[in-house]
Amino acid sequence: MIGINWDWGEKPNPKFWQLLVTLSKQENWAIEHGMLAAKIAALTARALTLPDNEVEQISVAGLLHDVGKLTIPAELLQKPRPLTEEEYYQVKRHPSAGARITEALHLPKETIEGIRHHHERFDGKGYPFGKSGKEIPIEGRILGIAETLSAALTPRWYRPPLSPAKALERLEDAVSNCLDRDLVNAFKSQLPKLFGFSSLTSLAFCTKPINLERLVREEEALIWRTISSFAGTLLREMEGLMGQNFCQTFTRWLNDWLEAQKIPLGFQGLKPVSKYRWWQTIGELALFGRTLLGAIHAMLGHLVGSEFVSDWLDGVRAQLSEQFDTVGFRYGLWVWKRDSNLVAVKSQ
Length: 348
What we know:
348 residues, Hypothetical protein af1432, 2 domains, two-stranded antiparallel sheet, disordered N terminus
């Protein structure tokens, strides 16, 4: 298996995951958007009774369909006002850029073609090629459904996520000009599975945004427990090595820093305690974890030397469970390490 299974039976390839995490620095919802698109694409492929290997290849295309946005400046992706013609031209290059990135990763043709064509429209008014109807490869037509529905269900700078009922309306509206009607009709039989409903009728009554945690298999809880476990282990070691007074001073500094960042989190003794969930997306939580551990690394490096601190933090990381260590790598929490392979892919 090369990627993520349609029913989330496997975790994504770490290289794919790091691309999504990197993209989430530019678009906070990138992880949820990619995961939802992966599952929608897979469900559509299943509805068409495509072979298992093609289902997987199309699912990976859904996961990575927006990686070409890594080549677009973050300020452009986050611009609150309408884009100029030149800015929109830059954004429209991301399907081709995503195809080049996935070609560099030596992914299957089906995955690459899905990414290359995910913004083509059935009426020929899409991009980058302006293909219409069945000229668009089936992978691209499937990804068009996944992109449309996943975009509706995830937040944007200018609006909150839509409810399943509203998202279904948006999917229906897009059939007349953007999407392949036959593929949409086939997918609709599978659509309730995305939310755990039994039928489209029951889905139509779901008028509030869904809890995305249900669709990402408690990833947020894993990230939070990883951050908390690492911080607690580090503080216990710090207390043993440097004394209780040093540790108390350090946690006071962390609490002051968190307050200045307006994050409702504080260290009580050696344990980080949050009053409520302040983040909106997995990307925001991962960014907080990277920022917090980066601040800890910088502060300790200033006090005792960066080389010693990097070795020390690696020793703390080695004490975590394999699951937490994997989550830390998946979301780039171990900020004192760098992935040269990811940098090389991003620069192409």
